[in-house]
Amino acid sequence: MRNALLHSTGRASSRLETTVQSLEPEPTAAYVHLSHSQPQRRLLGKYAPDHLRLTHRLYDYADLRHAPAVARLSDCCRTPALYQDMDSGEFIVSQKTCKHRLCPKCGATKSARLADDARQIVEKMDSPKFITLTIVSTNDPLEERLKHLRDSFTRLRRSTLWKRHFSKGISVVEVTHNAKTDQWHPHLHMIVQGDYCPAHLLKAAWQKASVDSFIVDIQAVPARSSAIKYIAKYAAKTGNFDEVPEWKLNEYLDGIAGLRTHALFGPGARKCIKPEAEKTTRRLSPVTQLHALHDEQRHNPTDVTPLLALIYRIARGRVPNTATGQDGRPQTAHDQIAVLLRNVGIACPRDSRSRITAVAAHPPPKRGDDRGAKRLWEESVDEASAITH
After folding, report:
1. What are the pLDDT digits (tens) for 105-118?
2. Contact between 173 and 186 (Cβ < 8 Å)
């Protein structure tokens, strides 16, 4: 997929179109980035080496039809921007994550969220069980084998045996590749509420549902904490494709495209999960992009270095303790950022009568090969709030 090209499109929303325009370059052609920007490296943290290695491998072996997805993955956290809440004065770092299935950083976030769902549903189970369902490996494409696995599990849940012994649960799909036979080996891991069921009866029911397989493993959950780790482990492994050979990589990408890797099933399963908080609207105004601060750091390291350190700590959710200002009054981390921004000559939007004035006075440098932050203002408020707390 060398020299793969992706044309970025899109427009700003009407509410923030004027204020964001100075931060957004014109839509341009964006290439797959094979190196990390400074803000990207800082935000990816421990996931940066794996992310870069993954990007290079996809760039070398993925077909051109996967170019948009690869470009999106390479742009994960590449152009973060600093925003200020016009009501509370808090600063928010919009990281612009890619949410790609293979991204190590986004995969860790997904794994943590799935572990929380598993904890909530396992807490309401009286006798949880570990169950692994496997189908026979064949030379069929991965997409067909995954569909066969999903359809077989649906038929199993409709069986009399399953309805008699099992009820609600949570499942995760894992895909491995057998290097000796060059075949796919998809299987389903789950935690399910159920009473005692003879293994040979469950194997017979699975063979009837899948037609070609009787491989089943069922165990009692020794501790609820181990059940949560069980699900989270396989959720993280879904995005690990180091064992997939180059000649199978495009088939793997086609197979997992749109795949629902985890699911809740059974009566009352969804009621066990706490509903997400209702999204609220916040008035956010852009301050600057972080790469502009890194450019300024080369000329003014004394003032910019502590500012960047504070911004990245907030971006990782590590809000520093309250400090004492020069006037002797306590200052929160957001107050400290406002003071440091003024020291480097950037006015906070909340301090100005016009939101555009503060941004237009310090426009970020233009970069022709960057798409910029095209959807920063469309991120959910819940995600942005979670970054700052």
Report:
1. 988 888 888 888 88
2. yes
Pair of tokens at residue 16: 């923030």
C-beta separation of 121 from 269 below 8 A = yes
Amino acid letter for position 30: A
Return the closest-CA partner of residue 170 out of 141, 130, 219: 130
For 157-209, how does the pLDDT look when each residue is reduced to its tens digit (9 = 90+)?
Answer: 999 999 999 988 888 888 888 888 999 989 899 989 888 889 999 999 999 99
**Alpha-helix runs per DSSP H in 285-354:** 290-297, 301-315, 333-343
Q: For residues 119-138, b (16+ Cβ closer than 10 Å) or e, as one string?
A: bebbeebeebbbbebbbebe
Does the model's pTM come out above 0.90?
Answer: no
Q: Are 315 and 307 in contact (CB under 8 A)?
A: no
Domains in the chain (CATH in brackets) are 5-101+279-388 (no CATH), 107-260 (3.30.70.1910)
The first and second tokens of residue 127, run together, are 């006798």
